[in-house]
Design goal:
Blueprint: H1 2-31, H2 34-39, E1 52-56, H3 63-72, E2 76-79, H4 81-84, E3 95-98, E4 101-107, H5 111-119, H6 122-125, E5 130-133, H7 136-142, E6 149-155, H8 158-171, H9 190-195, H10 206-212, H11 221-234, E7 235-239, H12 243-254, H13 262-271, H14 287-295, H15 297-320
Parallel strand pairs: 1-5, 1-6, 2-4, 2-5, 6-7
Antiparallel strand pairs: 3-4
Length: 333
């Protein structure tokens, strides 16, 4: 009788645990914005043939390297190349080529370009293997429950990212976005830029702002929690500090790991860092470092969460034996 009682209690406990996990999943889904909840697939749900990979390009987080890497592999990309080459006003959706690389004729790096992609039926067409955009919330509005997006992204410490952006803006004469190219920065020491008033011209807490679609108002603790929920549920996380491991995870997840050009492209764009921009580092713990941390306090916390999530996703996929297989991620986040 005692054994039978213990068995019954164990069964009841298992049922309650499963119901609890299901309730947590449902609560997370209902707490997300509608466009994210229904039009961007959960990272742990099995991939479908109608899903489209969407790379969230956070500036100076290896996004340009990923564009070059996947173009090298022969994947069809939707990015800013169509705008650069004059294909962003074509009447019909189509794939065009440049130097052997393939692109869909929409500019998904601009919010108005994402709207055009939606109107032309980009998700339904299946033409793009991977979409690049800085605007994950605009991307979510392009997709729909029958043709969902799959977000993946690289993350880098926000202070390192801000420092890299400072040096980039000194030389980026090709940038068309107003105020990005700042040749006057080349005459400044980075410490003087950070500790002076000119550092105030940069957008702070960029990652949190993009996830919650708040470009202007001050970020609140509730905003940060919402950004965490979206990141947890919807984004396959990679780390710049673990670039090759992250790329391997991306490629396995999306089924690109058997591409015949992959090893060659890995060597050129990932292992050898052909697209890296070397510059002076900022000493961690310095007054300038601490100021950038304060200016991007929510992004620093989100990055730390992304590092935690990178390890958790790795354990989930390892347990499942297949990246992308449905598993329940720990409810302790």
């Amino acid at each position: 009788k005692r054994v039978a009682l213990l068995a019954s209690l164990a069964t009841i406990g298992f049922i309650l645990l499963q119901e609890s996990i299901t309730s947590i999943d449902i609560a997370r889904k209902t707490s997300l914005p509608d466009d994210v909840a229904t039009d961007i697939e959960d990272v742990t749900d099995p991939l479908k043939s109608t899903d489209t990979a969407v790379f969230w390009h956070i500036p100076k987080d290896s996004g340009s390297s990923m564009k070059a890497y996947y173009a090298c592999m022969g994947l069809v990309e939707a990015s800013d190349m169509s705008q650069r080459e004059g294909h962003d006003h074509d009447k019909n959706l189509q794939v065009w080529e440049l130097n052997g690389h393939k692109f869909v004729n929409v500019d998904t790096t601009r919010e108005d370009g994402m709207l055009r992609a939606k109107n032309l039926g980009l998700p339904e067409s299946g033409l793009a293997d991977v979409v690049f955009t800085m605007f994950p919330r605009a991307a979510s509005k392009v997709f729909n429950p029958e043709h969902e997006g799959r977000l993946f992204a690289f993350f880098r410490h926000p202070v390192d990212r801000a420092v890299s952006l400072f040096y980039y803006r000194q030389v980026a004469e090709w940038e068309e976005r107003l105020g990005v190219y700042r040749p006057d920065f080349a005459e400044m020491k980075i410490e003087d830029w950070i500790l002076g008033e000119k550092s105030l011209d940069q957008e702070t807490n960029f990652m949190v702002r993009m996830l919650i679609n708040n470009h202007v108002d001050p970020i609140t603790e509730a905003d940060f929690e919402n950004a965490k929920e979206i990141l947890h549920a919807k984004v396959l996380v990679g780390l710049v500090s673990k670039m090759e491991e992250s790329v391997n995870r991306f490629d396995t997840y999306f089924g690109w790991n058997e591409n015949e050009k992959r090893e060659e492209c890995l060597d050129h764009w990932v292992r050898n860092g052909t697209n890296k921009n070397t510059h002076k580092k900022l000493r961690e713990g310095s007054e300038a470092w601490k100021k950038l941390e304060r200016m991007n306090d929510y992004d620093v916390r989100l990055y730390e969460y992304a590092v935690q999530l990178f390890e958790e996703q790795g354990r989930v996929f390892e347990r499942s034996g297949k990246v992308g297989h449905k598993q329940t991620v720990s409810s302790t986040y």
